[in-house]
């Protein structure tokens, strides 16, 4: 699996978070499918379900600068 970032935006409080996919793989069983992990994702702030999920090639630090690389929206 390439090194990329999981972008999640909450549907309730609209908080966005980005996680390295490596970390997600460590946190969950390696046998678990990405779709199963995504199905269980909830907002760290309010516990709401994500409204938007995307895979990004690069992390956008501090929300500044131009995002580089590809972005794939999963929802
Ligand atoms: Zn939230």
Overview of the molecule:
- This protein has 75 residues and is of the alpha+beta class.
- The protein has one domain (5-73).
- It is built from 2 helices and 4 strands, in the order ββααββ.
- The chain has helices at residues 21-27, 34-40, and strands at residues 5-10, 16-20, 50-56, 71-73.
- It has a 4-stranded antiparallel beta sheet.
- It is globular, with a radius of gyration of 12 Å.
- The two termini are 20 Å apart.
- The structure holds zinc ion.
- The site of zinc ion has 8 residues, from loops.
Keywords:
75 residues; 4-stranded antiparallel beta sheet; 4 strands
Q: Main beta sheet: strand number and arrangement? A: 4 strands, antiparallel
According to DSSP, the number of beta strands is 4
Distinct ligand kinds: zinc ion
How many domains make up the coordinates?
1
What is the general shape?
globular
The CA-CA distance between the termini, in Å, is 20 Å
Unreliable parts: none
Q: State which percent range the strand residues make up.
A: 25-35%
Rg of Cα set: 12 Å
The secondary-structure class comes to alpha+beta
**Average residue-wise pLDDT:** 86
Strand line-up across the major sheet: 2-1-3-4
**Percent of residues in helical segments?**
10-25%
Q: Give the SSE order as H and E letters.
A: EEHHEE
Number of helices: 2
């Amino acid at each position: 699996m390439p090194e990329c970032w999981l972008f999640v935006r909450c549907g309730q409080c609209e908080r966005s978070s980005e996680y390295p996919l490596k970390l997600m793989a460590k946190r969950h069983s390696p046998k678990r499918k990405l779709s199963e992990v995504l199905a269980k994702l909830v907002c760290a702030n309010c516990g709401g379900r994500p409204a938007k999920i995307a895979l990004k090639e690069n992390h956008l630090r501090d929300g500044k600068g131009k995002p580089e690389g590809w972005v794939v929206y999963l929802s």
